[in-house]
Amino acid sequence: MPNPLPLVSIITPSFNQARFLEAAIQSVLGQDYPRIEYIVVDGGSTDESANVIKKYESRIAWWVSEKDNGQTDAINKGFNRANGEILAWINSDDTYNAGAVSAAVKYLVENPEIALVYSDCNYVNEDGEVIGQFPAAQTDIRKLREGYVHIPQQTMFFRAKYWKELEPLDPSFYFAMDYDLWTRIAAKAPIKYLGGQTWANFRIHTSSKTNVNDERGWQEMLRVHYRDGGGFFSVIVAKYYLRKIIGPLWKWRIMKTSK
Questions:
Q1: What are the backbone dihedrals phi and psi of residue 42, each rounded to the nearest 5 degrees, phi first?
Q2: How high is the pLDDT of residue 242?
Q3: What sign does the CA torsion over 174, 225, 140, 214 have?
Q4: pLDDT score recorded for residue 210
Q5: pLDDT-based confidence at 230, cuts 50/70/90?
Q6: Assigned CATH topology for domain 8-258
Q7: Does 136 have pLDDT greater than 90?
């Protein structure tokens, strides 16, 4: 590892997630990597979120609690404040596992041609108990365009140069802002999956965006597909209609397990 070590900027967007926010914050501050710039962007929560953040404000580089235009706006706001060479975000209801940041940085430092790295991710329930594993796998620009995403956002770390070159997250996306970013990055440089390392935990609960808005997420992915020249007779469109059929069963199974 080089000296000095690269600065890693991590953003946590949050809104009315006081129940889970402290665990997210602790999972960042508990990392063994010594150069983390941590930013928390709260959307003006009406619960106890601000008080939770204040408990840790001496170790947070910058935080704010004010009305915003949603998660995408909050992440953009955080990255606009970030100074790191490597960027990531962890949502307020998700958590990192120990050693995640160090492992990601080590790989990116040793492989300068890689733009983005990610690893395995657990599904956990409201109490933090593991109930499954995200189907992470190696993907690339062709597979992403076909809807084979397989990137757990919670484990993703990418080089800040691509944020600066490719512009911020698209604020018109409510759900698929990460998918849009991945396709833009993967079109420029390789991305890498490191299997056998579980870097984060994806919390499944009744009010999570994934549970409530899965249909909207796929519609936004199709927007990216058509915007980038894709047609109707394509793999991702077929996957969308197949998911409309089997999606309710998958959601029922996950929510049953999470209780």
A1: -100, 140
A2: 74
A3: positive
A4: 53
A5: confident
A6: Spore Coat Polysaccharide Biosynthesis Protein SpsA; Chain A (3.90.550)
A7: yes
